[in-house]
């Protein structure tokens, strides 16, 4: 795709849509500075281009340049409102308020973040990503019931059927754990495992299953999930430490001592 867009730009050097398209490819690849360069070119050809500012804001957000991203998202919002004044049929981009919410969330301005997330979700009530963002913001404030509510909505299709998104199930399980609903935590996280989660958070799923079992004093059941954690990330001391404590609670002292020795080393 990059080669195709680059060939087009060699022939037509002022095509803003091609700059945007190539920038999006760079963005998807995680090459955000190259993406920003292309979005800059698109904006240079059309300073009223809402999508250019929005896309540039996304890349700046991913680069943790949050205040710059806010400026771009606000510009995108302003340009979109100008367009709506001339044509009310234009579809609004719900990603703009969501992007603003993500920036303010990262800056720990939770009230502003929630306000923008609310706007995005009002525009697209079924959008799982937006619901997850707001749920995480509620979680970070300790509002676990609200987090659970949003994540449950994120698991429902438009027809009311349940989705099996492992990442949403993972986040829901963490919210149940934080809310001290340990049985629901275990069942939800096991459901996440059945749906092939990414390896990046698989160990954390097992870890919280083990912790939840310990919180209801089912220490023997905690051994297996802690052992799975250790097999996935052998260098993570907290996994070995929690398994050692579980062994200690079931009076398997030899294995407990072995794990405690590993922690000390």
UniProtKB/TrEMBL annotation:
TPR repeats lie at residues 16-49, 94-127, 203-236. The keyword NAD does not apply. InterPro entries: TPR-like_helical_dom_sf, TPR_rpt, Ycf3. The keyword Repeat applies. Keywords: Repeat, TPR repeat. This is Tetratricopeptide repeat protein.
